[in-house]
Each structure stands twice: as structure tokens, then as C-alpha cells.
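Let's inspect a concrete specimen:
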Amino acid sequence: MSFFDKIFGGKEETPDHKSFWKKIESEEDLAKAIEHSFHHKIAIFKHSTSCFISKTVLRNFEKEVQNSDGKADLYYLDLLAHRPISNKIAEDLGIRHESPQFIVIENGKPVNSASHQDISLSQIQ
């Protein structure tokens, strides 16, 4: 890993190694996530893998989650790989797209959202 990768996050910055993430990679995955929201809160983290700010926010959020009791199912969406799904989330939930973005959903409806440095696990409560 180069010096710049250590400072700016490098390319290995994916949530694959974090067991709490459930990936959204298709419209079917999104529909299942929304369906789960009728049983308990879920949250979707929309992340741009090429953005330094998004990487930093994701890293900080993951640290916060690892020190929590896990009150909601957490879903991860790679915006660059799945932009049409991000657009569908914005359209279906009526929330303007931002990146990074964190959307809390309960009973199929958004109950809270945040972007950039405002993203925090406290949005789930």
C-alpha cells in the first residue's frame, strides 16, 4: 500500500470485510430491504467509492457501528456500480440523491436521512 493510499483510503476501501453490511446490488435486493423495514428499521448507506469524503464518512460510520448494539439492518449501496438503483431509491422514497447518504426506513417510508458529515448511527434512533 502506498503512502497516499494510507492517507486517502486506497482501493481496498469496500465494506466486504464488515459483517454487518447487507449489499444492495439489484432492484430485487432493494425490494427485500424495503420489505424488511416493515418488521424493523433498516438503513441504507449510499457510498461513492471514488470520493475521498465518502470514504472518510464510511470509515467513521463503520467504527461507530462496531461499537454499537446494532439496532437496525444496515444496507450498503455502491453508487458507481449501481447508479440506477440509487436513482430508484431517490424516486421511490422521494429523497433527493446525495453522496454519501444515509437513509433510515421504517414501514416502507423514510423516517430520517443525512448526508456527508451529518451521517451518524444516531439517525436510526
About this structure: Strands lie at 21-23, 42-47, 73-78, 101-106, 109-115.
